[in-house]
Design brief:
By secondary structure, this protein is α/β, with parallel strands linked by helices. 51% of the residues lie in helices and 13% in strands. The chain is built from 27 helices and 20 strands. Helix 4 packs across helix 5, helix 20 packs antiparallel against helix 25 and helix 21 crosses helix 25. It starts with a helix and ends with a helix.
């Protein structure tokens, strides 16, 4: 009789649950009394954990606790992903660390209710399962994932200047061990489904979307639970191993990030080392420290960059222009690498040059890229078949995009355009990869001069995410829109820039590189110069950058873009070029290069001297940014910041040069 009353009450509670209306969750109870909770955030193309979403989940947990279902499955109603993380848009609403921490504790409480349900719980994921999405999944007993290339899991919060704050720091290290869990969080890497299964994050993989539901149902009925970290992995969470691992992680992290600029990874290591023995202290540490980081300058500026990337992605949306075939003219380093990158992104590319002997080195470089990126032999072979040597320029007529990447000579480029313009398809984009020549000069003999745009890639093409979409006075907007769409389709950020000497990035870099060479001519060690730039927050020093760009390119920069007397600079560069010291590509420049890395001696610079050198180095860089802003080379200062960050690697923790200057002005005004 008591059991009957209990069953009646359970059915009543389950019925109550289904009757309730939720804005972001769909609720279903099947015949086995399994509760299916489907997150489908209203008005959004992807799921993210907003305050409203978590509030509704909290209500669902309360009802589930009373309903006593056979199990709970959390799944996504979005076709392409599970949950991409917390709603970053809400992070900026906190003025005080205490307010952020309080909200994090509320999230902890919701996930704790999920974790504490007496019935089995399963997360059935597909597509992106990141940040708070993975933290929610980790609060479940069992994680099942669809094994497709689109399924990715990870905790990338460190890239936003924080670390996982909804229990991920605690639950991930419990599930996979301290070493593996910490490395994943400190790098912010995203894992494909098989790698996540191998690490122990995912408990089961299925090959078909329809199998997700059936596998989740089976896991509930069999009351499956994650095995958790094995005995060896668990030891990495304990002392004395934890102390030794923490020291190692600090050292490795410091090689890539300055704790003054990026405090989050070091705070994460400190928390784990100090409190991993105490689960409650870990949760409280997450709430307190992440709250403090969230309102700090680094996280604020990194969120700014995140929103800038979203804006740049929007610039590349043009649904009516799909690129399948690309024709690249000029198989040098830039042209060959542009062609190879387009192939990696799934396009068919014809690569043209005067003779086959000029194309062969590009094909060899491309094969190395394919091996690094694609890894499996069938994919590599398919890529090689899509990269077609084309001495006779047979690909011109069929191409959707034609990119000219020959040497910097206006007459030669105009002669080439005259030969190919009559043969191009009406819809095809005609683009030049010139780094300095004005479009007005290049397009003057074209039948349709409004058609020519610049697609200025940066070296190395496979690593640099920015492409400048250069437009001249006569360029039609419709062609720059197509150019931006093409960039988006090859996974690059498009940035519209006016046709003017150096456009945006090279114009800003020119005085910076010349200042570095000036300091070198004065007798300051190149390693010291580079160390000062890195101390400021640059990803590498200007001397090393000059080697990577190529000293033959730098001398052209000195001739066309540098201001003031740079005769000594040109003389130095020309002498090195005459000795075949072109930089990285020849194996020697300012540095000697071994296996793609600069062979440099260790450089130490004390704080005061380093700051003095950094200030001198960055002054011409920042002054030129202000001049570019005044000349309206790009649409606004936000896009200027984005272009300089993604085109030069300018210290991301500052939020970009114009944001950095504005904050410096605020500091000075505050002190006055």
């Amino acid at each position: 009789m008591i059991d009957q009353r209990s069953n009646d009450l359970r059915r009543k509670n389950m019925s109550t649950l289904e009757d309730q209306q939720f804005e972001h969750w769909q609720v279903e109870k099947d015949t086995s009394d399994i509760l299916w909770l489907t997150i489908d955030r209203k008005g959004e193309s992807t799921n993210s954990l907003s305050e409203a979403v978590l509030s509704e989940l909290n209500a669902l947990m309360e009802i589930a606790e009373n309903a006593d279902p056979a199990g709970v499955v959390i799944q996504s109603g979005k076709p392409d992903s599970f949950i991409v993380g917390a709603d970053i848009r809400e992070f900026g609403s906190f003025e005080k660390a205490e307010d952020a921490s309080a909200k994090i504790r509320e999230g902890h409480a919701v996930f704790a209710r999920l974790e504490s349900l007496e019935c089995p719980t399963v997360a059935a994921i597909h597509g992106f399962c990141l940040g708070g999405g993975l933290e929610m999944a980790l609060a479940c007993d069992y994680i099942i994932a669809l094994n497709t290339p689109e399924t990715r899991v990870g905790l990338p919060e460190v890239k936003l200047g924080i670390f996982p704050g909804l229990g991920g720091t605690t639950r991930l290290t419990e599930k996979v061990g301290g070493l593996k869990g910490m490395e994943l969080m400190l790098t912010g890497r995203m894992l494909r489904a098989p790698a996540a299964r191998g690490m122990g994050i995912i408990d089961e993989l299925v090959s078909e979307f329809g199998s997700l539901r059936w596998s989740a149902r089976r896991a509930i009925l069999k009351k499956r639970k994650s095995r958790g970290a094995g005995s060896v992995a668990s030891l990495t969470n304990r002392q004395p191993a934890r102390k030794a691992i923490a020291a190692m992680l600090r050292k490795k992290t410091a090689e890539k990030a300055n704790p003054d600029h990026y405090p989050a990874p070091f705070a994460l290591i400190d928390l784990w080392e100090k409190h991993r023995d105490n689960r409650l202290a870990m949760f409280e540490g997450e709430a307190k420290v992440v709250g403090e980081l969230m309102v700090g300058p680094t996280a604020t500026n990194l969120r700014r960059i995140f929103f800038l990337t979203e804006r740049m992605k929007e610039l590349g949306k043009a649904e009516d222009f799909k690129v399948r075939r690309v024709h690249v003219i000029g198989a040098g380093v830039m042209g060959g690498d542009i062609a190879a990158w387009c192939v990696v992104q799934g396009m068919e590319v014809t690569l043209q040059d005067r003779e086959m002997k000029y194309i062969e080195p590009a094909l060899a470089r491309a094969k190395k890229l394919f091996k690094r990126r694609l890894k499996k032999k069938p994919a590599i072979s398919a890529a090689m078949s899509r990269l077609i040597a084309d001495v006779d320029a047979a690909g011109v007529e069929r191409a959707d995009v034609i990119i000219e990447a020959i040497y910097e000579n206006a007459d030669a480029k105009r002669e080439l355009y005259a030969a190919i313009e009559p043969r191009m398809a009406e819809h095809a984009v005609l683009a030049t990869n010139t780094s300095a020549l004005p479009l007005e000069e290049l397009s003057r003999d074209l039948k349709n001069p409004e058609r020519l745009i610049g697609l200025h890639f940066f070296n190395p093409v496979a690593k640099m995410p920015l492409v400048e979409i250069v437009h001249g006075e006569k360029t039609a907007d419709s062609w720059t829109v197509k150019g931006a769409a093409f960039c988006s389709q090859i996974n690059r950020f498009p940035l519209r820039t006016k046709s003017s000497p150096g456009f945006l990035v090279n114009r800003v870099l020119a005085p910076y590189l010349m200042e570095a060479i000036s300091m070198h001519l004065e007798g300051i060690d190149k390693e010291i110069i580079d160390a000062a730039a890195i101390r400021f927050g640059m990803p590498m020093g200007p001397i090393e950058l000059a080697d990577i760009v190529g000293l033959d390119v730098c001398i052209n920069v000195a001739k066309t873009l540098a201001k003031g007397d740079v005769e000594a600079h040109r003389k130095l560069l020309q002498g090195m070029i005459d000795d075949n010291k072109l930089g990285k590509k020849s194996g020697e420049g300012f540095y000697t290069w071994v296996k793609g890395k600069a062979n440099r001696k260790p450089a130490t610079v004390d704080n005061a001297y380093g700051d003095q050198l950094a200030k001198r180095l960055m002054k011409p860089f920042l002054d030129e940014c202000k001049a570019v802003s005044a000349d309206e080379i790009v649409e606004d200062d936000d896009l200027l910041d984005a272009g300089i960050i993604f085109g030069t690697g300018f210290a991301p923790f500052t939020g970009g040069p114009m944001n950095y200057l504005a904050n410096q002005d605020k500091k000075e005004n505050t002190h006055v």
